[in-house]
Amino acid sequence: MCTVWAPSGYYHLGNLKEGVTCRAIERELTNLGTKPRFILNIDDQDPFDRIPSDFMEYESKLSPYLEHPLNEVPDPFECHDSFAGHVIDDALSTMHNFDVKPEPTIMSEYYKKGSYDKYVKLFIEKKEEMYQLTEEITGSKMEDFFMIQCPECKNIAAPKTLNTEIDNNKIKVEIQCSLEDNGCGFHGNIVLGDTAWKLKWRLDWAARQDFFGVTVESSGKDHGVAGGSIDSSLAIHERIFGKTKLPLLIQHGFLTVGGRKASGSEGSGVPVSEYHKMLDPEIFLYLIYRHNLRSDFDFNVENDVPKVASEFTKAREVYIYGEGIDHQKSKEKTLKAFELALIDKNSIKNYVPIELGHLATLMQVFMFDQDKTYQKIIKQYSIEDNSLMKDIFNQYFNRTKYWLKNYADDNFKFTISEEINCEIVKQLEGEIYKNLLTAIQKLPDNLHGDEITQYLYQIAKENDIKATNFFRALYISVLSKKYGPRAGTLIESLGKEETLDLIKKAMECFE
Ligand SMILES: [Zn+2]
Ligand SMILES: [Zn+2]
To answer: Cα 176 from chain centroid?
Structure first.
């Protein structure tokens, strides 16, 4: 089984989804008792067709190498042999962070050692059949079967093949390096293999599936449209290679980031190497596995982190206690996704059962004091205080802090009011603050979290106050802004006395 990636920019979330999908297939095949080989084909000879936005500060260094093979573009950071080498290293370490451990295959090496030779010869020998096949499937005849690098200007995208002949086991190619495509105008004969070359994508794909003996391959569903590369690949296997047993080419949906499709060359906003710093990798894996393979979905870093984290906690509890979801099918899906997401099976029961949103509130109330937050949580959730739990808590705390400080939407962020801003306070009637004060003075001690929120709703209703205004009065008093985290969590974290003090201070504005 395998998947493909071109190192044309930093590995992005969409790529990671592909790798994560293959990880699940690998796991399931292993569970079935087979020994799958999970290959990541790295297309390092693709033309460097644009400077990725993340590399724009090196534009002058990189632009002379546009349309050169990616493995011949220099590494602007000078820590690797090439641009491709630099982003490949980054990609592999990112994948490892998410427990995705493919066997990377560098495709230029396979070209160099001749793995593709018999295929290019076959395509040339069967060129009439290839013309017919490509026309039937794509609606237009494929003229060139490969890209070849110009020996003069090193561009791999500009040369046009004028003539190809097989002579004494060598393939001689007459090329014209097109000026229109930023080539140099070179015209002459070269032997295939003397410079970098690469089969056109659809042909290359079928060829490598054949020589690696690929049985399953996952790719984005754009490859699966009618006349797309999946159709082409399968037709080549069948009609050109004469195979009856075809690989299973599955398609997966897209993961968009805040509504945008990630792209290696355009950059994707949040670098994928950032994700494990703010979200437990198992949670990220769960996010992917709980969606249907072919469906598209969006992940918004600013807003979705608490939601996904709490879904994962819920799935864990369903797994441990066997209850929480009544619908049988959705329960099975949740459990499967959870099981697949686990990196360390021994850690199933080692977790801090607090919701991330609640933790974020506590942390901010305690001004990121790690120990105070920890003490509060072990008390509130009756957790056994030991070094393992503290360790797990610390990881959770640090990731949440990283998210809050760097990526969280403003809605999740707050600081406790130090000074009361009467201008904001007076946007609501004094009567509302008075009612709020009384409500919190009478707040029963046995209520926690959302029970407190519910209690406040009830009081607002009884006093004919719009609930939004009632909560707004709380946020204005405590946070000097009109919105904030869940009211119950906020009051509980801050404590009744301090909440009352802040409301009293706000009420002074009306004196
Ligand atoms: Zn480097
Ligand atoms: Zn040229």
So the answer is: 41
Q: What is the pLDDT of residue 418?
A: 86
**Is residue 224 exposed (0-12), middle (13-18) or buried (19+ Cβ within 10 Å)?**
middle
Question: Does the pLDDT value for residue 267 go beyond 60?
Answer: no
153 Cα–ligand 1 center, Å: 24
- The DSSP code sequence of 219-279 is EEGGGGSTTSHHHHHHHIIIIIS--SS--EEEEE--EEETTEE--TTT--SS-GGGHHHHS
Strand partners for 191: 172
Give all strands of the β-sheet with 170-177 in edge-to-edge order.
Answer: 159-167, 170-177, 187-191
Which H helix or E strand runs over 187?
strand 187-191
Q: Please, are residues 265 and 52 in contact by the beta-carbon 8 Å criterion?
A: yes
Sign of torsion over alpha carbons 254, 259, 261, 264: negative
Cα(79) to centroid of ligand 1, in Å? 4
Start-to-end Cα distance in the chain: 74
How, if at all, do strands 146-148 and 197-199 pair?
antiparallel
- Residues facing 190 on adjacent strands: 173
Minimal CA–CA distance to 202: which of 119, 262, 121?
Answer: 119
Ligand lying nearest the CA atom of residue 58: 1
Q: What is the model's pTM?
A: 0.86
**Residue pointed to by tokens 């469906």:** 295
Average pLDDT estimate for 76-82: 97
Burial status of residue 324 (CB atoms within 10 A of its CB: 0-12, 13-18, 19 or more): middle
Angle between the N-to-C axes of helices 281-289 and 13-31, in degrees from 0 to 180, rounded to the nearest 10: 80
Q: Are 305 and 403 in contact (CB under 8 A)?
A: yes
Round to whole Å and give the CA distance between 330 and 290.
Answer: 10
Ligand 1 centre and the CA of 38: distance in Å? 25
Distance 74 CA to ligand 1 centre (A): 9
Cα separation values, 127 from 17, 28, 79, 179, 481, Å? 37, 40, 43, 27, 71
Residue 263 pLDDT greater than 70, yes or no = no
Q: Near ion ligand 2, which residues have CB within 5 Å? A: 150, 152-153, 177, 183-184, 186
Residue 100 is predicted with a pLDDT of 96
Looking only at the bridges linking them, the beta strands covering 216-220 and 248-252 are parallel
Q: Cα(175)–Cα(299) distance, rounded to whole angstroms? A: 46
Nearest to 400 by CA among 344, 348, 361, 350: 361
Q: Rounded distance, CA 278 to CA 395, Å?
A: 10
Average pLDDT of every residue of the chain:
92
CA of 50 to the centre of ligand 2 (A): 18
229 alpha carbon, distance to own chain's centre: 24
pLDDT digits (tens, 9 = 90+) for 224-249: 788 889 999 999 999 999 999 999 99
